[in-house]
Specification:
- The complex is a heterodimer of chains A (354) and B (279).
- The mean pLDDT of chain A is 88.
- Chain A is mainly alpha-helical and 354 residues long.
- Helices cover 76% and strands 0% of the residues of chain A.
- Chain A is globular, with a radius of gyration of 27 Å.
- Chain A folds into three domains: 4-61, no CATH class; 70-104 and 172-177 and 206-353, MetI-like (MetI-like fold, Orthogonal Bundle), CATH 1.10.3720; 105-156.
- Chain B is mainly α and 279 residues long.
- Chain B has two domains: 2-60, no CATH class; 61-275, MetI-like fold, CATH 1.10.3720.
- Helices cover 75% and strands 0% of the residues of chain B.
- Chain B is flat.
- The termini of chain B are far apart.
- The chains are: A mainly alpha (354), B mainly alpha (279).
């Protein structure tokens, strides 16, 4: 006969077992191994079937080598450079969420009726003009698309726009990166085709985007911004905005506050916990990010311009076979993430408790 | 009366301006996709032209994709792997979450904290040694090698635990009085009540693995085992000039996602907002 806590422990562990066993094998053991590896000279070029140098404990050598190696700092710099897009992306998400949280039906049946009527009228006038004036097929398709979105948006409200904004983020992955690689193509892509008249007028050379050292990072940042505006952050802001108490807004309105004053003094402080959460998650993601798009679009180039820390780990660990060194970079990355997380613990509770 | 008309008038104008702004923003989101679909219908000679429209839509591009690469195979591989990972994740996470949220056992909260703290580790930390483990187990270039390391996550357990904590404990107590076993309580009461959380986790895990790139990239060696992202990358690297065919392949891999999102967005939006609730 077992004691009660003993039986409870067995039961608790039994439910835990399927998950925790897999977790031990594929997470805990590798973490321990990786930590040990970071202090050894394991290198597939030294330890293979043709050559067998003894595996040695080399202490902090990898860390010393990395921090004195210019490539490490350059790739860390690339990572941080790409992360400069984060504030823009967050501001974009916030603006999108604010626009979406407005009353898109005008708050009144009469106004809504006028909106529907106005949209139908505008759409028909635009289409008739474009078709009647013999616009090109492309112009007709574009204006048709715009008018279609307008009609759907007026009738369907927030849901329609929210869906359209969220699709780039939801589908983001290798397929979208390859799509953007083609969009950026200097000679056959539509981006340079659209910019050509403007650049010609200014007498400038068209950028070669992904293949030009100074344009590659901005190109990746523009694409990331496109995918990040309608992301989860926008949804979090939408939820946050719906929690801002309307009484506060009304009080501010009675005091004669302008729209900007209302935002800055009422809405923004109330969104502080959401913003804090979003910043922390984005910074952690940014430190670890960049591999997928660089691998699919630039292969880390040109001349290493888009090689981030995660890409560096990939080349060291999986292409060169320097496992010890790659593990050391991974742990340096962990250190940076850990510092951000510590900051989150220290300052995050301040916002949440408010 | 005049005042009311003028506020209505003002409201009409400001809401119209808002709609025009939203349409402009929507267009920037949609135009890349429009170009993608239109280019996928062009013959190769028209790809670089300024006119986005094909002179005559060439639907055969889509069939051509299946002729030049084993695209159906990539599709199937992706679905197969993502479905298995999702099943493993949701099933094992819900059991573990039940243990952490609804059972009492000595040391439970300490174990949970330790377990949760591992989510701070970058995935890259585990991938290097995991690859060596896969070599030892002989699982490189197999589906099992893709599925197993992805199927046991702490994050899924965390999400479901947060959800299960919101279910009133009087339900389990009543069931226990009636002599129900813990398994029955899990299967018949807690799991059905956690449905929104389970659905959200299912969708996220599935989508995440449909997009999964790093691990399949290093694990897969034979073309017939490629998943969609790896297959697309392979297609772009080996036949980069066939922009029209690549866009057809991209369209086919993106389109199911868009349909899925439109159908499931109710659950998704809730799930994302739920995931952000901190515990």
């Amino acid at each position: 006969m077992h004691s009660k806590p003993h039986r409870q422990l067995r039961l608790g562990l039994a439910f835990l077992a399927p998950n925790i066993l897999g977790f031990l094998i594929f997470t805990i053991v590798p973490v321990a191994l990786s930590f040990a590896l970071a202090f050894t000279n394991w290198d597939l070029r030294l330890h293979n079937r043709f050559q067998n140098e003894p595996l040695r404990f080399i202490g902090l050598d990898h860390f010393v080598q990395l921090t004195t190696h210019p490539d490490f700092w350059r790739f860390l710099g690339n990572t941080l450079f790409l992360m400069m897009g984060i504030p823009l992306a967050i501001a974009g998400s916030l603006i999108a969420a604010i626009l979406l949280s407005q009353d898109l039906r005008g708050g009144n049946r009469k106004v809504f009726g006028a909106l529907v009527g106005g949209a139908v009228l505008l759409a028909s006038v635009v289409m008739l003009t474009v078709v009647g004036a013999g616009g090109s097929a492309m112009l007709i398709v574009m204006s048709g698309l715009a008018c279609g979105i307008l009609l759907l948006g007026v009738l369907g409200g927030t849901t329609v726009y929210r869906t359209l904004f969220y699709v780039p983020h939801f589908t983001s992955g290798v397929a979208i990166f390859i799509l953007w690689k083609k969009l950026y193509s200097p000679h056959t892509g539509p981006i340079n085709a659209a910019l050509a008249p403007l650049l010609d007028a200014l007498g400038l050379q068209p950028p070669e985007w992904l293949t030009q050292y100074h344009w590659a990072k901005p190109a990746l940042m523009i694409m990331s911004l496109w995918a990040a505006i309608g992301s989860n952050n926008m949804l979090l802001y939408l939820a946050g905005l719906s929690n801002v108490s309307p009484e506060l807004h009304e009080a501010a309105e009675i005091d004669g506050a302008s729209a900007w004053q209302k935002f800055w003094n009422v809405t923004w402080p109330q969104l502080a916990p959401v913003t804090f959460y979003i910043v922390v998650i984005s910074v952690i993601g940014g430190l670890q990010g960049g591999f997928e798009m660089a691998r699919a679009m630039t292969q880390g180039g040109p001349a290493g311009a888009t090689t981030t820390l995660s890409y560096f780990i990939y080349t060291e660990g999986f292409e060169t076979g320097r496992l010890g060194s790659a593990s050391a970079i991974a742990w340096m990355m962990f250190l940076m993430v850990f510092v951000v997380t510590l900051g989150n613990w220290k300052f995050g509770s301040r916002y949440v408790n408010d | 009366m005049r005042e009311r008309r003028s506020t209505l008038h003002h409201r009409f104008l400001s809401t119209s301006a808002l709609h025009l702004l939203l349409v402009a923003l929507s267009l920037t989101m949609v135009l890349p996709f429009l170009w993608m679909v239109l280019t996928s219908l062009k013959p190769v000679a028209e790809v670089g032209l300024e006119n986005w429209l094909p002179r005559k839509p060439k639907w055969d591009n889509y069939a051509e994709v299946f002729r030049v690469i084993p695209f159906a195979r990539f599709y199937w591989n992706s679905l197969f792997v993502a479905a298995w990972v999702t099943f493993l994740t949701v099933f094992t996470s819900s059991l573990a979450a039940f243990s952490f949220a609804r059972l009492r056992w000595p040391g439970r909260d300490k174990v949970f904290l330790l377990y949760l703290s591992t989510t701070m580790l970058p995935g890259l930390v585990t991938m290097l040694p995991n690859y060596q483990i896969m070599i030892k187990l002989g699982l490189v270039d197999t589906f099992a090698g893709l599925i197993l390391p992805a199927g046991f996550t702490a994050l899924g357990t965390f999400l479901l635990r947060q959800f299960m904590l919101t279910i009133p404990s009087s339900l389990d107590e009543a069931a226990e009085m009636d002599g129900a076993s813990k398994w029955r309580i899990y299967w018949d009461i807690i799991l059905p009540l956690s449905r929104p959380g389970v659905i959200a986790l299912t969708i996220f895990t599935f989508i995440g693995n449909y997009h999964s790139f790093f691990w399949p990239l290093v694990m897969l060696k034979s073309v017939h085992r490629y998943t969609l992202p790896i297959g697309l990358l392979f297609f772009d690297t080996s036949r980069g000039q066939s922009t029209h065919l690549i866009m057809a392949a991209v369209t086919m891999s993106v389109l199911p996602m868009i349909v899925l999102f439109v159908v499931l967005q109710k659950y998704l939006v809730k799930g994302i907002q739920l995931g952000a609730i901190k515990g």
